[in-house]
Specification:
By secondary structure, this protein is an alpha/beta fold. The protein is built from 7 helices and 26 strands. It has helices spanning 9-12, 17-20, 205-208, 266-279, 284-292, 297-306, 315-323, and strands at residues 36-45, 48-50, 60-63, 68-81, 85-86, 89-92, 95-107, 115-116, 119-123, 126-132, 135-138, 143-144, 147-151, 154-156, 159-160, 164-166, 171-172, 175-178, 181-183, 186-188, 201-203, 219-222, 233-234, 245-248, 281-282, 312-313. Strands 1, 2, 4, 7, 10, 11, 14, 15, 16, 19, 20 and 21 form a 12-stranded parallel beta sheet that branches. The chain is elongated. The relative contact order is 0.07.
Length: 352
């Protein structure tokens, strides 16, 4: 990834580079870019271009039909040109896939046009699985969130979000002017401030954040994505995977359920206590009955004491009660006291 902290950024891509004109686009109408550029899922941040009197402006200025640009993202770009201005490519004849741009793109001067968030003019080229989220402004015609002028080009599985403004004709949320083919591509009617486009389908923000809206795309939900951006993102920039796109899905929150307890009635409590008190000796069976009944042990002992009872407990049973974490209530003569030399089967008595 490249950004303003990268070595030589100030020399080549900053607001002070090239006499304050910023980045010098790769390729122009005289020497076009003809090769392949694969960003391999990396990004270029803080690209600055300020060339309001020049045409064919972007990271790439002018590309031919043999060129391929893929797997690259522009983050917080600030791009200004005259005609044929895009964040990624100004004038494109080639193939663009798995690419995106954020920031702002402007057709400067009093007459700049053919301005798009990603591509200025798509002249017979292809754009697939790509998007733009930045603001777009054109002082003249053909201004679009993704592409300014789709001139016999093909656009598939792509979208745009950014605000789009222009002062002349053919202003659209996805494409300003379209003379090509557009399929399975969308723009956000709310964030773009554009209800129409010369191609594509306009959706609400809510629809743009739902996987069901993107039928025909290779897309899957992913709860590990940041909830700060709920639109589709390209997998190559987000952990890879078998699908081309991913979209945020809220993690499933599991609410623990408490196990209902059966609180015994006072009649049931009295019946159990009376049966045990009347026997005077607390056996294993009695203890299990008591512990499984839901009766508070402290309340039970208090009631025995108040009744004048003198409860006899076998030592092994007392140990079971203590291991259960039971403490006698405040005011009792003493807690269970055991002689470790006694066998559990012996009926040595302890008085409470």
């Amino acid at each position: 990834n490249l950004s303003n902290s990268t070595t030589d950024y100030a020399t080549y891509a900053s607001s002070t580079a090239n006499s304050n004109a910023g980045w010098n686009p790769i390729g122009d109408s005289g020497t076009k870019f003809t090769g392949t550029f694969d960003g391999v899922g990396n990004t270029i941040g803080d690209l600055y271009i300020n060339r309001p009197t020049e045409d064919n402006i972007g990271l790439f200025g002018y590309t031919t039909n043999s060129s391929v640009i893929k797997n690259i993202g522009l983050v917080d770009a600030d791009v200004t040109g005259h005609w044929n201005v895009g964040g990624l490519v100004g004038y494109s004849y080639g193939s663009i896939t798995n690419a995106y741009a954020t920031g702002s793109v402007n057709g400067g001067g009093s007459s700049g046009g053919d301005v798009g968030g990603l591509i200025g003019i798509n002249a017979g080229g292809t754009i697939s699985n790509s998007y733009a989220t930045g603001s777009v402004f054109g002082a003249s015609w053909d201004v679009g969130g993704l592409v300014g002028w789709n001139n016999n080009g093909i656009i598939t599985n792509s979208y745009a979000l950014g605000s789009v403004t222009g002062t002349n004709l053919d202003i659209g949320g996805l494409v300003g002017w379209n003379q090509g083919t557009i399929s399975n591509s969308f723009w956000d009617k709310e964030t773009s401030n554009q209800a129409t486009s010369n191609g594509g389908t306009g959706l609400s923000t809510t629809q743009m954040q739902q996987m069901a809206s993107f039928t025909g795309w290779s897309i899957e939900e992913d709860s590990t994505l940041s909830s700060s951006y709920k639109y589709p993102v390209l997998s190559v920039f987000n952990g890879g995977g078998s699908s081309t796109w991913k979209i945020y899905k809220a993690p499933v929150v599991v609410t623990p359920t408490s196990t209902p307890t059966n609180t015994p009635t006072q009649t049931q409590i009295n019946k159990i206590i009376t049966a045990i008190v009347n026997k005077n000796v607390l056996t294993n069976t009695d203890l299990n009955t008591l512990m499984n009944s839901g009766i508070d042990i402290r309340s039970f002992i208090n009631q025995v004491k108040l009744a004048g009872g003198n409860l006899v407990i076998i030592p092994g049973i007392a140990l079971k009660v203590l291991n259960g974490g039971i403490n006698l209530p405040y005011g009792m003569d003493r807690e269970f006291s055991l002689d470790s030399t006694n066998n559990q089967d012996e009926k040595e008595e302890e008085n409470i």
